[in-house]
Amino acid sequence: MKAAKILASCTYSPETLKIISKAFDDAWADIAEHFAGDAGRAAAARERLAHAVLIAATNVSHESGQIKGMALQIMALSYPGSWLDPSCKFPDRKARRTAALH
């Protein structure tokens, strides 16, 4: 789990790491359903969320609810139209090659 390694590699006190981990887990619980059925997107989203939580943890108080809220805002701002967006349909490789030849 790359997201867990990202969170564990930080230099925070054990208590702060608990708060950050709770914020991450709570935030993931809110958005996980959007990535159900696509392990690649889920792993990438978890990694992006881990980074967002760490950014939020440096910018808000050390209260898990506030960190979670800011991390979800960061995700929302970087999410629409990205390859993580489940509603964003990318053509398969063959279709892209065919389109490029015409």
Rg result: 16 Å
Average pLDDT taken over every residue = 78
What count of domains describes the coordinates?
1
* Overall number of strands: 0
Low-pLDDT stretches are 95-100
What's the tally of helices? 5
Sheet with most strands: none
In sequence order, what are the helices and strands, one letter per element?
Answer: HHHHH
By helix and strand content, what is the structural category?
A: mainly alpha
- Which word captures the global form? globular
From the N-terminal CA to the C-terminal CA, the straight-line distance is 41 Å
Strand-residue proportion: under 5%
Helix content: 55-70%
Could you give the topology of this structure?
Elements: H1 2-8, H2 14-31, H3 39-59, H4 64-78, H5 93-101
Helix pairs in contact: 1-3, 2-3, 2-4, 3-4
Question: What's the short story on this structure?
Answer:
This protein is an all-alpha fold. It has helices at residues 2-8, 14-31, 39-59, 64-78, 93-101.
Question: What would you note in describing this structure?
Answer:
With 102 residues, the protein is an all-alpha fold. The chain has one domain (2-101). The chain contains 5 helices and no strands. It has helices at 2-8, 14-31, 39-59, 64-78, 93-101. The longest helix has 21 residues, at 39-59. The termini are far apart. 23% of the residues are buried.
